[in-house]
Specification:
This protein folds into two domains: about 15-45 and about 160-295, no CATH class; about 50-150, Alpha-Beta Plaits (2-Layer Sandwich). Helices cover about 65% and strands about 10% of the residues. It is of the alpha+beta class. It starts with 15 loop residues before the first helix and ends in an 8-residue tail after the last helix.
Length: about 300
Amino acid sequence: MKATSNKKSVGSYPFVNVIFSISTALFMIGLFFLLVIIARNISSDLKKGIEIQVFLRKGLNEEEIKVIEKGLSEKSYIDQSDGKPRIQFLSKEDAAKTLIEDTGEDFIEFLGANPLRDSYIINLTEDFQNNERLEEIKKDIESIPDIYEVAYTQNLKKMVDDINDNIQILGMVISVFVIILLFTVVVLINNAIKLALFSQRFLIRSMQLVGATPFFIKKPFVLRATLHGAISGFLATLLLLGIYLLAIEILPDIEQFLKLWEISLIFIGLLALGSIIGYLSSYSAVTRYLRMRLDELY
């Protein structure tokens, strides 16, 4: 009978559990960034809808109204769209027409006159959308001549603030889990490679005795671990893509809050992160093992 050989090649180790653990950790990291990006984009979209209405003094002529518009457009807190300030003039006639359509009642016929005022509807940049800044902006605009009053929606502002707070809380909670998962993965890779090194310790020692350099010995371990990290990143990417496509089927509106370049960046990041984790963990484990004394190998 011929004897069978159970020798393992240099650099081999039980990699199934390692790939599974890295894939799980990377999936959680990718899911975290996916949720954060979607939440931030939703928040940003809501903030773009926050409007401040600037009511004008009655009896202004067209030239005086244009002067006010020019003054508002020069303010640093006015949001820009395609290089133009987001300022919209709303005449009292248009405002009355909209109100009549919404309520179904002709209040002008009842009152005998239109009590509404001409106004400008302006949008602010995100940096100025907090309670303190809004009050400062309100006072600044009301200091402009011929401005009667400035009004903004408090309920919508509170909703955006609540979303931002929830994003921060969600980020903190998931970050803790991500850190724990990464630590577990690094420990697992180190233990798997240590086991492989221990099972091949005499072969490695023989390679050292015949003059093999540390780089030559490390190379197969590092290459395999890096490859397994990249495979894990690819698997995590596929799983994350599946979850995203399923979410779009259930909630189609989600698609508008996640751009293609953002998805691509997350997927590339997962592949790179998996490779980096595999490389650094394996390099550290092999380096530490090769520094052990001969008597510590038994």
